[in-house]
Amino acid sequence: FTVFAPMILARTGQDSLIFGSVQTAGAVGGILGAVIISAWGGFKRRVHGVLLGWMMSGILFALMGLDAGPTLWIVVMGVAALFFPLINTSNQAIWQSKVSPDLQGRVFSARRLIAWFAQPISPIIGGTLADFVMEPAMQSSSGLAAVFGPLFGTGPGAGMGVLIAFVGLAAALGGLMGYFIPYIRNAEDILPDHDEG
C-alpha cells in the first residue's frame, strides 16, 4: 500500500478524482464484505478464511499493478476489499478462541506491537525500491522494461505497478503455502481452545 497512491497518481497525471474513486471502491467493498461476513459467519474452520482470504486478496491486488486504467482499478479494489473482513475476523476468532480471556489483553497487545513494528519499515523499503530501482528500470530500455512493459507499461508509475503486482503475488503465495505447512493448516486442531484447557 506504500506505493499504491503514488502509482495511481503517477499513471493518471495526478488525478485525485480517479484516486478517490479507487479508494471509495475499496471502502464500499470493505463495508460490503463486513455485511457478508456478519450474515454468513465465515468458514467453520477459520484458518480457511485467513489463508483463502490472503490468496484471493493477493491475486486481486496484484492485478492493480497492471497498466489497465481506472475501470480495472476500481473494480479490482472493490472486490479485493471484500476479503479483508474475512481475513481479519477469521484471524481474530482463532486468537480469541485459543487465548484465555485473562491473558488476551497482554497477548493481543504484544501481537499488535509486533505487527505495527514493521509498519515504519515498509515505506522505507517500498519507497526506496520504487524511486531508485523499479521506476528508473521501467522507464528505460532495460531488460526489466522489455519483459514487463507489455503488462505494466513503461511510463510513470510502471515500476510501482510491477512492485505492487509482485507483492500481491507474494501475499497470495504466502496464503497458499500455509496449506502446505501442517502447523499453520492444522493450528485450530493443534492448539486447544482456552475453555478446553
What would you call the shape?
A: elongated
Order of helices and strands: HHHHHHHHHH
Percent of residues in helices comes to over 70%
The computed structural class is: mainly alpha
How would you describe this protein?
There is one protein chain. The chain is mostly helical. It contains 10 helices and no strands. It has helices spanning 4-11, 16-40, 46-63, 70-98, 101-117, 121-138, 143-152, 158-178, 182-185, 187-190. Helix 3 (46-63) packs antiparallel against helix 4 (70-98), helix 3 packs antiparallel against helix 8 and helix 6 packs across helix 8. It is elongated, with a radius of gyration of 19 Å. The termini are far apart.
Task: Jot down its keywords.
single chain; 197 residues; mainly alpha
Protein topology:
Blueprint: H1 4-11, H2 16-40, H3 46-63, H4 70-98, H5 101-117, H6 121-138, H7 143-152, H8 158-178, H9 182-185, H10 187-190
Helix pairs in contact: 1-8, 2-4, 3-4, 3-8, 6-8
